[in-house]
Amino acid sequence: MTDIPIQVSKFTRIQSPSSINTHRQCARKYYYSYIKKLQSLPSIHLIRGKIVHSALEDFFKFDVSKLTPESFEIESKMIISNFFKTHWENNKNALSSLNLADDELKHYHDESLMMLQNFHHTFMEKLKLQSMSLAEAFKKLTPKTEKHYQSKTHGVRGFIDAIHEIENKVILMDYKTSKKDIITEDYKLQLAIYALLYQETHNILPDEVGINFLKFNEQTIKVDQELLEFAKKEVALIHEKTTSTDMKDYPKTITPLCKWHSGQCDYYNTCIKE
Ligand code: SF4
């Protein structure tokens, strides 16, 4: 999810994994997004990400005690699929404003639904490993979702998609609809910041942080002091580098991410003129 840095007294602005990774990609892009506050362009990836996250959130809030034990699996699969369909429908205007070809839109619809069904299948397998009814296991394994954290010490904030606090073990997860299942350096930083935020708020070091690549699988990394130090260092660095509001302090990083065959950086049209 994209977080917007906000103004506070101790820091020039509160940062987020998105703002830090934007700066790491291109300082000028950070300037356009977080200082000049230019509008970003709507994209299918952002919209369908939001839809999938909303469907997952609704799924975990659903009262599964209403389901019949014999058909729990099939009924719960229908429920997550229906939540997806509702959110897809609710976003119809935003989706059609993208002017995608019908078959392209269908591809994203079907792929997103498949991701949620994939998630459901894996979750069901976990429920079956519990020595209790599926409804009880569902309640036990349901994470806290979409929790907002903010660090006053480090001036950073973030939304954690799923917090699993089960049997004295804490695992923080982020859901991604990415094309690849690789924990990149940017993702690692995002997870490190989540670990830092959780640790500072609860005074408990999470055991693991990870990404559920909904198209593929889950991957986690162990949380250790080194990971927290990585987060602290990057957060301190971004505060240091973003005190100025002068565009010339935000150089362009020209890469294939500026413009590619089917798209361009949100600020490309402004950037080429300056
Ligand atoms: S077009 Fe390229 S150089 Fe310009 S802001 Fe975007 S990423 Fe940076």
Give an overview of the whole structure.
With 274 residues, this protein is of the alpha+beta class. Helix 3 crosses helix 4 (72-90) and helix 4 packs antiparallel against helix 6. It has helices at 17-25, 27-35, 44-61, 72-90, 92-96, 102-128, 134-141, 185-202, 225-241, 268-271; strands at 144-151, 156-166, 169-176, 208-213, 218-222, 259-260, 263-264. The chain contains ten helices and seven strands. It has two domains: 17-39 and 143-249, no CATH class; 44-141, no CATH class. A five-stranded mixed beta sheet has the order 1-2-3-4-5, with helices on both faces. A two-stranded antiparallel sheet has the order 6-7. Bound molecules: iron/sulfur cluster (SF4).
